[in-house]
Amino acid sequence: MENFKFYAPTKVYFGKDEEKKVGKILKEFHPKKVLIHYGGQSAIKSGLLDRVKKALDEENIVYCLCGGVVANPLLLKVNEGIQICKEEGVDFILAVGGGSVLDSSKGIAYGVYNEGNVWDYYARKKKVKGALPMGCILTLAATGSEMSNSSVITNEDGNLKRGLSSEYGYFKFSILNPELTYTVSKYQTMCGCTDIIMHTFERYFTPYDTLDLVDQMAESVVRTVIKNAKILLEDPTNEKARAEIMWAGSVSHNDMTGDRSLGDWACHQLEHELSGMFNVAHGAGLAAIWDSWANHVYMENPTRFAKLGHRVFGLDDSDTLSCALNTIEKMEEFFKSIGMPTSIQELLKRKCTEQELYELTYKCSFEHTRTIGKFKELDETDMLEIYRMANEKEVA
Known about the structure:
Blueprint (H helix, E strand, L loop, with lengths): L10 E4 L7 H6 L6 E5 L3 H4 L2 H11 L4 E4 L8 H14 L3 E6 L1 H15 L5 H4 L11 E5 L11 E6 L4 E6 L7 E4 L9 H19 L7 H23 L4 H14 L13 H13 L3 H16 L4 H11 L7 H18 L6 H5 L5 H11 L15 H13 L4
Helix pairs in contact: 4-5, 7-8, 7-9, 7-11, 8-9, 10-11, 10-15, 11-13, 11-16, 12-13, 15-16
């Protein structure tokens, strides 16, 4: 059994109307000034931003605003937030939105606390020494950023997407009201469900011995997402299904289903370059790459894939190799059933050129300086092959 660590310091407030308590919750941290960081018009049109401001006003908490975060959050907006914080004397950041807003908030928190260009920390040129304290109100179940120590930012200069995980990247509190996700589009909801499953898979497909209890927890998360994603396709305001998906998103990325440092993460690394270059939805990019990754690596440990197939899809194949391949096929069928692309051609509505495939590989290898993956270590030849497999798959 491999040693592992578990650390989940975020306090969660889960349920209906919990966002109305944000003023009282924030007051416990005695902030001098709060930056409310949010996305586009949704927070305004829904009235959520006004409710948040009212809650802070009632507790006499001073705040300033920084909106306009987009999907695949940009370094430009992070730097804008950093400047506002420094000029306004902000000492606490409140993120109101989905994973992009949460990740952008973490970037701002790092940039205010640490010296120099915040991108240097995401590019792994410098190591963070701390961050401003943060809290969040989540409006989209997907990235798990509300309980993880991770964030991902895109640098417009070169369209480079890089992640940063640190002990300072946790929110002090996360407010999770499933009703706030009712207005999320069907496509983005399914992208979120895909991301949740993939966070679970990244931990599940590990070369290390695992506790069966942890495996069963991971398998339960996958079953839960599959079941409730199908419900939300037909009934997007189903309260129970929204709640199940929202909590699954948090559990999938807070290390309860496995220590992230022991996980594979190759699919995420491969996808980061797709969404960095082409600005596609992260979940959709993951669905487009997973089948090709799985078919490339499953022979490293087909028993692992077969175990997933037995426990999640109820497959009764006695032949391990056959079961492993059927498991991959079942996952692809599920992604298709919820409207996710299962190839690069379907994702982009065209094939990548050979030059673009080489560029994706070059960026994924951090300019010829790294391999990726742990279930099977992938060098640049492997990366290019997976991109090619995903690119050549015909659209069904």
